[in-house]
Design goal:
4-stranded parallel sheet; alpha/beta
């Protein structure tokens, strides 16, 4: 069952976002649940490249999410399926996950990038609303290395806090970008 349905048009506003990490129990659900609270009317999901299928969110990251006033109750991890890549914007937590997606599904290249490269996406839009065409342009560009979100799975509370803060900052930038609207036509 597909979560997203992308319009036939090559351009238009971004209406769906998919976050991808490895196990789908730490980073991607954190980003999914956080973005859902910040942008109304947006289809948001998360998946794992090697998901711990049907697991709850990892305790430390769920705690970090709770500190931000967001509950992880009811979340269950899911395996990434090809249909999930129909999202208008697919954001991975690492360059390795992006490479894996593109190796298996080259058609997703125009929609897939790293969450750590959201600042470049923000810069590329120049204050304009985010469209699928801008996402495609951004996904084809070269970006700085070293922007992976650290994996907090079975690591220290400090690592979880650092990952959570990094995701929080990037999701806030993404939310701002997604909430921009095209200027209205003048009334006659």
């Amino acid at each position: 069952m597909t979560v997203f349905s992308t319009p036939a048009s090559a351009d238009g506003p971004v209406r769906s976002v998919l976050f991808v990490c490895t196990g789908n129990v730490c980073r991607s659900p954190f980003a999914e649940l956080l973005l859902r609270t910040q942008v109304a009317g947006l289809a948001v999901a998360s998946r794992g490249t090697y998901a711990l299928v049907d697991s709850e969110m990892e305790q430390q990251m769920a705690g970090q999410l709770s500190l931000r006033g967001v509950s992880s109750a009811g979340f269950r991890s899911r395996q990434l399926e090809i249909e999930d890549l129909e999202a208008d914007l697919v954001l991975t937590m690492s360059d390795r996950q992006r490479a894996l997606i593109l190796e298996e599904n080259p058609a997703a290249a125009r929609r897939t990038g790293q969450l750590g490269h959201v600042p470049e996406l923000l810069s590329l839009t120049g204050g304009a609303p985010l469209t699928r065409e801008r996402v495609a342009d951004w996904s084809r560009r070269s970006h700085p290395a070293g922007r992976n979100v650290p994996d907090p799975y079975r690591r220290s509370p400090e690592t979880a806090a650092r990952s959570a803060q990094m995701i929080d900052d990037l999701v806030a930038q993404l939310a701002d970008l997604l909430q921009r609207r095209a200027p209205e036509a003048p009334r006659r």
